[in-house]
Automatic annotation (TrEMBL):
Family membership noted in the UniProt record: Belongs to the metallo-dependent hydrolases superfamily. NagA family.
Any Pfam family the entry gives: Amidohydro_1
Protein name (database record): Amidohydrolase family protein
Keywords: Carbohydrate metabolism, Hydrolase, Metal-binding
Amidohydrolase-related domain ranges (all copies): 37-374
InterPro entries: Amidohydro-rel (IPR006680), GlcNAc_6-P_deAcase (IPR003764), Metal_Hydrolase (IPR032466)
Top-rank taxon: Bacteria
Species the sequence originates in: Autumnicola musiva
Length: 382
């Protein structure tokens, strides 16, 4: 049996968590008087890579997937959804196969990968909504092709980001939802009716709402208002301090106090030192001291996210928009709730012992330990 103690992130009361075979068997009050808080492990629904590793790289290797898993354990993430973006059919298939094989060969990695997020290629062709997804591979939803990919992934595709503006989208969404895949609207230029039809067909999420959009939109209606107003949609947001201004973050959280989720959308540049790098899609990119990643020749344009989920939690709390407790939930139990009815990672008896222990210093969460299925997978050097 393992025992973990700290202050409950919600109640701030000292608690003792007992764990057996990876599961929480009891949560009780304790006399703990140390400096650590204890919260559910973080869950990242959208992550493309980390510290030089990229799930979308041609010739992705099993060791790359293992390396990313270890690196993000160090950032408090106990469950993540490696994100495969628009690419040639063969390259998508190859990445899915490698992730599936890695899961089959490694028990702990398998538990850490909650599923795969397929972001593309069924996205908008329009500049702006399309973002950096290569136009030549963008296409209409194709169920047969999706089934081939799902088979290669060993059934692990749990989230698909698509736009409902294509003919045939609604039937495709229904099939996805019926097969247990969460459909998230993103990289879209769909109109109000198409968005409503997608929701009626079972779409239940918005991908990085407010990003991957036209630079100029009609004041109303537009696809941001439509998605914000839809009570059935969870919104994932990139709260790294660069992708959305404070006012937008504040409004999103006010409109959807219970249904906002944090994602990192981290690229392979996340976790690297500031400097100049070459991106396979964006050409030359720059990561500055503040942590902003942009196109060198056009500094106004972001080149993706270079920050971890933990950074986003810190940013949201320090911006004063929400409490630490809520920011943590937006990045841990709520993402799991969005995918299923119950969060399997709440700090409760019978749930998986996926935990983080942390201290609060200089307005930052300083990670002390990450626990996956009851076992420490990261411990801060003493
Ligand atoms: Zn995207």
């Amino acid at each position: 049996m393992e025992v973990y103690e700290g202050y409950d992130y919600k109640t701030k009361e000292p608690i003792k968590i007992e764990v057996e075979n990876g599961e929480i068997v009891s949560v009780e009050k304790s006399s703990y008087n140390g400096s650590c808080f204890i919260a559910p492990g973080l869950v990242d629904l959208q992550i493309n890579g980390y510290k030089g590793f990229n799930f979308n790289r041609k010739e992705l290797k099993e060791s790359d997937v293992i390396a990313v898993t270890h690196l993000i354990w160090e950032q408090g993430v106990t469950t993540y959804f490696p994100t495969i973006v628009t690419n040639s059919d063969e390259n998508i298939l190859a990445s899915l196969e490698v992730i599936a094989t890695t899961c089959e060969n490694n028990r702990t990695i398998n538990k850490s990968i909650g599923g795969i997020h397929l972001e593309g290629p069924f996205l908008s062709e329009e500049d702006g909504p399309r973002g950096a997804h290569p136009l030549k591979y963008i296409k209409a939803p194709d169920w047969k092709l999706f089934c081939k990919w799902q088979e290669a992934a060993g059934g692990r595709i749990r989230i698909i980001t698509l736009t409902p503006e294509w003919p045939g989208s609604i039937d495709f969404i229904k099939r996805c939802v019926r097969s247990g895949v969460t459909v998230s609207i993103g990289h879209t230029s769909a109109n109000s009716e198409q968005i409503q039809e997608a929701i009626d067909a079972g779409a239940s999420m918005s991908t990085h709402l407010g990003n991957a959009a036209h630079l100029l939109l009609p004041r109303h209606p537009n696809y941001i208002w439509d998605q914000l107003a839809a009570d059935d949609l969870w919104s994932t947001i990139i709260a790294d301090g660069f992708h959305l201004p404070q006012s937008v973050l504040k409004v999103f959280l006010k409109v959807k106090p219970e249904k906002c989720l944090l994602v990192s959308d981290a690229t392979n540049f996340a976790g690297l030192e500031p400097g100049s790098y070459t991106s396979h899609i964006g050409g030359e990119v720059e990561l500055n001291e503040a942590g902003r990643l942009y196109i060198r020749d056009n500094p106004k344009l972001l080149a993706g996210s270079a920050q971890s989920l933990l950074w986003c939690v810190n940013h949201l709390v320090n911006s004063g928009i929400t409490s630490l407790e809520n920011a943590l939930e937006m990045a841990s139990v709520k993402p799991m709730e969005a995918l299923s009815v119950t969060a399997p990672n709440r700090i409760e008896k019978g749930k998986s012992a996926d935990l983080i222990l942390f201290e609060r210093k200089d307005k930052e969460i300083k990670l002390v330990q990450t626990i996956k299925s009851g076992r420490p997978v990261f411990s801060k050097e003493q």
